[in-house]
Amino acid sequence: MSFRITTNGLFRSYGNSIRRSKEKVNDKMERVQTTRNFSSYAEDPAAAAKAFRLRRDYWRAGDYLETSSYLVSKFETAWTAGGAIVNGDDSATSLDGIYSAMSGLSDATASGRRALGIDLISKSESIAMSMNARYNGEYIFAGNDGLNVPYVWDGDTLLYRGVDVSAAPDTAAYDALKAMDGETAYVNIGLGMEEDENQKIIPNSAVNSAISGLNFLGYGTDEDGDPINLAVIMRQIGNIYKNCDADSGDFANPGDKERASALTNKLLSAIDRVQEQHVELSARSAYVKTNISQLEDTQFTLSEQIDELEHEDIALAISEMMWAQYSYNAALRIGNDILSESLFDYMR
Questions:
Q1: Helix%, strand%, coil% for the chain, nearest 5
Q2: How far apart are CA 7 and CA 294, in angstroms?
Q3: Are 216 and 80 in contact (CB under 8 A)?
Q4: Three-class secondary structure assignment of 270-332
Q5: pLDDT digit string (tens) for 12-60?
Q6: Comparing C-alpha atoms, which of 101, 135, 97, 103 is closest to residue 285?
Q7: What is the predicted pLDDT for the residue at 91?
């Protein structure tokens, strides 16, 4: 009777052992097939929780990358539009070229004044068109109002979002221009966007995606009451030259020559402003590009960490599977010998 209990115990022990061995083979085989260290949270809660955090950081970096790429494209489109103003193109002269041409109109006849005047008016209109460039369906230089065209000529008056850009200081119109010029639209690109005690975004912790055409071309009037906006100055000079005599180049009205000369000097300052803002757009794009490079490095590092945590070394996994299979086969052979002798002893 005691012998039967020992045999039954041996059978149960062997059965449990062979089942565990088979489960180990299946586990190793699944890991080889899936190349994963675990397939569910329950298999390894600590590793699964760590993997979730790594993947969350990876996805977040991906979101920042997408936003940063959008900003670079927007800034570069703005830079290209500004370049058409600053450097000219096949149909328009550069700002430096225009200024040089105007400075050369000091001869006695200056028969080219009228033609230059027409070109200046045309250039002023093309400047407004360039400032109305769009990206992704929105007007780039419209500040926070990307759905409405920013610049519109109303005769010789240039409007920005419906307000005269040559409004004098200490007026409601000027205050409106100043407010529009100061508009911001901060976006998070992974710099740790934070707010100050007044719930305002700290500038260095995010990137301002808003681009103001007012900041680019200028607005308001100076101490002499003359316009600051590049396009308006150019148009006023153009109107003076356009009214000159077509043959002699004589000015149409007394004081026009002095007026044109004064505006030409102020045009140089306006040109400097536009050129500086054009360079600033390039710097904004370069800054975000640097952030993109860092985000790509972060994603690469996170990807390696995720892979190391979640995925098996395939060569090692195959080796372990083969060893598990070998152990299982050996257990079957040993079990066959044990069971055969136990059954024979029992019958005897």
A1: 65, 10, 25
A2: 68
A3: no
A4: HHHHHHHHHHHHHHHHHHHHHHHHHHHHHHHHHHHHHHHHHECCHHHHHHHHHHHHHHHHHHH
A5: 665 666 666 666 656 655 554 555 565 655 666 777 788 788 889 989 9
A6: 135
A7: 63
User: Rounded to the nearest 5°, which phi and psi values hold at 246?
Assistant: -65, -30
The label of the residue with tokens 């050369």 reads: 104
Give the per-residue pLDDT at 246: 83
Q: Which residue has the tokens 């026009």?
A: 256
Residues 6+ apart with CB under 8 A from 162: 152
Determine the 3-state secondary structure of 153 from DSSP: strand
Question: Residue 234 is encoded by which pair of tokens?
Answer: 């150019």
Instruction: At 105, list the tokens.
Output: 């109109």
> Tokens for 304?
């390696």
pTM, two decimals, is 0.75
Structure confidence by residue, pLDDT tens digits, 271-288 = 999 999 999 999 999 999
Which DSSP category does 29 fall into?
H
Counting as low any pLDDT under 70, the low residues of the chain are: 1-44, 89-92, 103-110, 310-348
Nearest-angstrom CA–CA distance, 191 and 214: 28
